[in-house]
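Morning - glutathione inputs below, output right after.
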Amino acid sequence: MAYIIYGAPGSGSGIVEAACAEIGADYELRDLDARNDAQRREAYAVVNPHRKMPTLETEDGEIITESVAILLTLDERHREARLLPPPGSKHRAQALRWMLFLATELYPLIEMTDYPERFAERGICLETLRTRAEKMVRERWRLLEANAAASPYCVASGFSATDLYVTKLGVWLDEDWRREQLPRVEAIITAVRARPALAGVWARHIR
Ligand SMILES: N[C@@H](CCC(=O)N[C@@H](CS)C(=O)NCC(=O)O)C(=O)O
């Protein structure tokens, strides 16, 4: 079963690549030239009309966008890999809680820091918008830091796909600030980066 992952080095597609590597699934990378905004072009909109990365294509041509939808689909298709705790368990509920927090409360703020012009009419100070979004990003990371289990993974039962999310979004933070302010998040990132199956993915995605 070979998947196709549309993404770019350093981008959020690392979450999906890491999930496939953990599963041991075959996957082919279709990298976009994100530095030149290739994800915004018509050719890619045919694959992902929202023009964002990642996109997963299954072996029968099914297109899945939205990182959480992709992770849940991979978990359902490869239950033996235990990307997430078993359905119905309290640990799964916690893993989904923090995964969704990252995907819906944090990830969209990164679009605001990276592309503030998308959120403002002409005349609005983009730097003010960016600064405010950066502050909110840090507040939300502090919330996760204070409330997720982290021993060293996000959920008490051990590694889950939520830790991949924490790692990929966490490495976009200023490293000194993260180490000082988010020691439990730092522990998750350290543990995830040490997972043998993921060495190749992080070499591509974390500088
Ligand atoms: N809700 C989407 C968000 C994906 C997202 O924001 N991807 C970033 C990659 S880091 C992207 O494509 N950014 C380029 C852009 O917005 O033009 C998901 O979870 O998959």
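Note: The mean pLDDT is 96.

O.
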